[in-house]
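Pipeline run #58 for the internal structure catalog. This entry was flagged by the ingest filter as a single-chain record with no existing model, so it goes straight to prediction. Upstream metadata was stripped on purpose; only the residue string is passed forward. Reviewer on rotation: M.T. Logging verbosity set to normal.
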Amino acid sequence: MSTSPHLTAPSNTKENEVQTVLVVDDEPTARIALAARLKRLGYRVIEAVDGKSGLSALRRERPDLTILDWVMPEIDGPSFCEQVRQDHELRTSQILMMTSNDQPEQIAEGLARGADDFLSKAASKYEIMARVQSGMRAASLIRRLEDVTEEIRRKQATLERELQSAARYVESLLPAPGIVLPGIQMVHAYRPSLGLGGDLFNIISWGEGVLGLYLLDASGHGVSSALRSAALSTFLRRGNLLRHVGSTDPGAILTEANKQFPLTEDGNYFTIVFARLDIRARTLSYATAGHNGAFLQRSSGDFCWMAQPNLPLGFDGSTIYVTTDLTIAPGDRLYLLSDGLYEVPDQNSELWGQDRLEETIRQFGCRPLTDVVSGAIAEAIRWQGHEQFPDDVALMGIEVTDRVV
């Protein structure tokens, strides 16, 4: 069976295909005699007169089995084997070494340098048949494995393209950073794990001077989590909330969302923080469902973590989520974040933690919000020692500027 030289393996090995043997031997009589015997056994045979031409034939023809003489000029049998094992495209080739000296030391050397089996030049036709059939079985198994591996690679490439496409869709749902209301600036960072995540955040305009905002986290990763997050974000659109809830109250919104999104059959759920920022009343109202990633940094530098002891969405349909109110002032900054940011482990499995995150943000002081958000992500990366986060990471920062006054 032959293939194009640039392929690593035939696309398929069919049961009725004639198998190919490459015979490499510089002794014409021995080579021709062995080739004739193999042809009588039903194999297609290719002959090469030395190691150099044998390597060329191996690359060109990709035989199922190579039978190789030990003693040859320029490239002997063991050197031939070493070159094959060092070649990425040839290294799985099955090689049967022929030798007139079948001492244990020589056999050990041949195996160590890359031969798969040995055949004595004085072997009977029965032994030749047995050795060749054994090599063919091994070659067939290897090629099946290569076919399966190649199919897995193709499917993986397709899956990665689909994940990238889905990730672009999820990112298209995120709000554009900048001035979202007069007196309100927003900056965010989004780093999904494995190319696609279940974290999502957005802003809802409730009218003049009033803003809704949320960050949600679907348990799990991948396409399923992303689709569930997209579904919940659709429910959280302004028109849906007015229709289903009839209120901008964060607690009422989460109470209704809890009824609309019960646990899945696999036990998946959401955590979420939902806030309403009223510039006119200078209030921040919020409710959480199993989510601890939100805090208000006062212009004075004080931190107020907005954690509430309650269940994630979907665990108990009768849960009532309560709204908490805080006052806001110019210079205050609100941060909504996923736990994937502060739960990153270092090489000793120690988590970065909320305290280190808070200290990092505190050290930035009054620097621009863009610097704080990007700096927090960079510090988490430094802590874990690499760019790829083990969980989805989302961070949204909202600053109340002096235009509120």
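catalog note: Residues 20-151 form a domain with the Rossmann fold fold (CATH 3.40.50.2300).
catalog note: The chain has eleven helices and 16 strands.
status: ready for reviewer M.T.
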